[in-house]
Amino acid sequence: MAGTTQKGTPSLPRRNPISWIVASIALVAVVASGGCRNRDHAHLDDQAERYVRLVLALGDRDPDSLDFYAGPPAWQAEAHARNASFQQIKQSASTLLHEIEADAPTRDDAGGRREFLARQLRAVIARVDLLEGRRFTFDDESRALFGVEVGSIDPAGAERARAMLDGLLPGSGSLASRYAAFDRQFMIPADRLSAVVAHAVDGCRRVTRQHMSLPRGEHVTVEFVSGTPWSAFTRYEGHGQSRIQINEDFGLTVDRALQLACHEAYPGHHALNTWIDTALVEPQHRVELLVQPMFSPQSLRTEGAATFAPELAFPDEARLRFERDELFPIIGLDPRAAARYLRVERGVDALRLTQAGVAREYLDGRLEWSRAAEALERDALMPSAEATLKFFNQFRSDAVTYTIGHDLAARAVDAQAGADARWLAYERWAAGMK
User: Fold this and answer.
1) In a domain, 1, yes or no
2) Is 317 within 8 Å of 44 (Cβ atoms)?
3) What is the pLDDT of residues 111-150, one digit of tens each?
């Protein structure tokens, strides 16, 4: 999601995921001969399937808890028919977690599947607790669901960013009002929005294909909607197909349109989900990756990677060239304004962690609505503060996936030298690979 949401490689022809899952289920009573998978691997596959069914049960009772599912439709239909209660879901998740924790490590778990399942199940249990009325502090909740916390925020970095912006933004008045006026100059007119987004998605795809091997036939469908608490959302539908919904209620500037295209499509959610599907789900039979709970350590990685995606695809001068030379002309903007515009936008990006700090203060009750909105506008320079607070109300500590998640992804990628190593680190970090 991308705002909220949220969230590709091998070029070989893809098998139908449903067909191989059915086949794998038929081979559960396995012995290590004739190419059959061994008993330990089959046991782990069974645990993975039980986990998927639990996430589907939670998503059926609380749709916000399910980011996407790309497995057999029958499993989702069965979850709906059973209509398990929150307590039944929690008990089953606890039983499976204890079983996984008691299992001895085996060579069949080289990819850390048991550790992954354990982390995810702990998040499922915490999400049920939250839905049943248990109150967490923001940091306790983010640790339980995502495995991270905001921690202490050094104000010096934000102050440096605001000082830099103060020198770049023309006019008089508060920094927030000057930024809002500056930002409006680069707003995309409604009749040009579809064309700008389509060109941005195409540009992101061109860059991504130079580094990630996307399967034939992969595709994103873009729809424009309204009345949602998020600016955009990607639903991965399997088979390399994704549906992206963009909320027209949120005004998009040129730079935000490119960020959205990278975040939701290439190399963000669509490309990553396609890569995980074709590189891990099919060849390695990683059944557990057919589903993604919205509130989980897995979501922290995929959302964090997608938030970092624009910086990976269009670093430094490449972003300036693409926006100035390809996007600005579509709406008739003066290309001479592009360099300052992007310096301003990167300065505002540097205030990202401030958003998480305000979310924590607001959800922990130390800031009421009006003061939280004022803090987002004043300190984070957010032009749609009230919409952001509505998002916080619904998705709560999910705010850390776009802030802490981004910084963790950036750290993993920036530790590598060379484009190929950076893109490989991006894929592996998003997938939780060691």
Assistant:
1) no
2) no
3) 689 999 999 999 999 999 999 999 999 999 999 999 999 9
Residue 194 contacts residue 200 (beta carbons within 8 Å): no
CATH number (domain holding residue 279): 1.10.1370
Determine the number of helices (DSSP H) and then strands (DSSP E) in the chain.
21, 5
> DSSP secondary-structure letter at 285?
-
Cβ burial of 168 (10 Å; 0-12, 13-18, 19+) is middle
pLDDT, tens digit (0-9, with 9 covering 90-100), for 331-388: 999 999 999 999 999 999 999 999 999 999 999 999 999 999 999 999 999 988 998 9
The whole-angstrom distance between residue 176's C-alpha and the CA centroid of its chain comes to: 28
Buried b (16+ CB within 10 A) or exposed e, 236-268: bebbbbbbbbbbeebebbbbbbbbbbbbbbbbb
Beta-bridge mates of residue 66: 293
Residue 11 lies in a domain: no
What is the b/e burial string over 130-160, where b = at least 16 CB atoms within 10 angstroms of the residue's CB? bbeeeebebbebbbbbbbbbbeeeeeeebee
Is residue 348 included in any domain, yes or no?
yes
Residue at 8 is within a domain: no
Number of structural domains (the chain) is 1
Within 13 Å of residue 221, how many CA atoms lie on the same side as its CB?
A: 10
* Total Cβ atoms within 10 A of residue 61: 19
**Domain span at 128:** 17-431
* Of residues 395, 433, 70, the one with CA closest to residue 229: 395
Are the CB atoms for 395 and 4 separated by under 8 Å?
Answer: yes
